[in-house]
Write a structure and sequence with these properties.
Elements lengths: L1 E6 L4 E7 L8 H16 L5 E6 L10 H6 L4 H19 L4 E5 L2 E3 L1 H7 L3 E5 L3 E3 L2 H4 L5 H4 L5 H10 L2 E3 H7 L4 E3 L4 H13 L3 H13 L5 H18 L1 H11 L6
Parallel strand pairs: 2-3, 3-4, 4-6, 5-7, 6-9
Antiparallel strand pairs: 1-2, 7-8
Helix pairs in contact: 1-3, 3-4, 3-11
């Protein structure tokens, strides 16, 4: 995976994930992303973090082929830990995180954007969890932060996706723009935040997390336990092998 970042004069850091062909990340890449977010956020020079991706979509989840190729459970354990750490890194980042989303945002992508502070989406963005079709469970904790409760259940059980426009109506997407305006829109909002007193903004982020009614780390780890149960029962492995044979790579 290529994870690159650049710091702008106003203290905004733009972190770009580029893992062809579809930004479906193996375990190593999730851990790398988590470490990068934490390092950037720990730097006092950082005022805002913009999380974006190159390629056809923002994030296609985990690399199913990596899991299907593993004869044991090592890959599953590592990718689950990697996802948990990356999601937590975004949530616990000391500065506001703005996710700039284009194309598909699936599986692990939902965990990232729901744990960010603000979402700006291109008008071609779609959001969903195909976990049930992949024999896995997880990120319902995060999907429930993006859409109303019963809508989240319907999306989860069916594997359907929601559009950027729908999430904007729900209030979870701040702004919807044309794809070629996505980064500019994210940077405009980042600049507005970066102009504030950085100490106040960092404390505002910490205080907001402190009053959050949902423990996102614990909720996600609880969900992951059911993925292990499905794996031990054989249902998850069958779904992953079937999906891998079909040539996909996301969950």
């Amino acid at each position: 995976m290529s994870t690159t970042w650049e710091r702008r004069e106003d203290g905004t850091v733009v972190l770009t994930v580029d893992h062809p062909p579809v930004n479906a990340l193996p375990a190593r890449a999730w851990h790398e992303l988590a470490a990068t977010i934490r390092a950037v956020g720990a730097d006092e020079a950082t005022r805002v973090l913009v999380l974006r991706a190159a390629g056809r979509g923002f994030n296609a989840g985990v690399d199913i082929k990596e899991l299907a190729a593993d004869g044991g459970h090592r890959a599953l354990v590592e990718v689950n830990r990697g996802c948990a750490e990356a999601f937590a890194a975004a949530y616990e980042c000391p500065v506001p995180v703005i996710s700039a989303v284009h194309g598909y945002c699936l599986g692990g992508g939902i965990g990232l954007v729901a744990n960010s502070d603000v979402i700006i989406a291109a008008d071609d963005a779609t959001f969903g969890l195909p976990e049930v079709d992949r024999g896995a469970l997880g990120a319902a904790t995060h999907l429930s932060r993006l859409v109303p409760h019963h809508a989240a259940r319907a999306l989860y059980y069916t594997g359907r996706t929601a559009t950027a426009q729908e999430l904007h109506r729900f209030g979870s997407v701040w702004r919807v723009v044309e794809p070629d305006r996505l980064l500019d829109a994210a940077l405009e909002l980042a600049a507005e935040i970066a102009a504030k007193d950085p100490r106040v903004v960092r404390m505002a982020k910490e205080s907001f997390n402190g009053i959050d009614p949902v423990d996102v780390r614990r909720g996600y780890r609880y969900e992951q336990g059911f993925t292990f149960e499905l794996t031990l029962a054989g249902a998850a492995d069958r779904a992953r092998r079937a999906f891998a044979r079909g040539g996909g790579a996301e969950t």
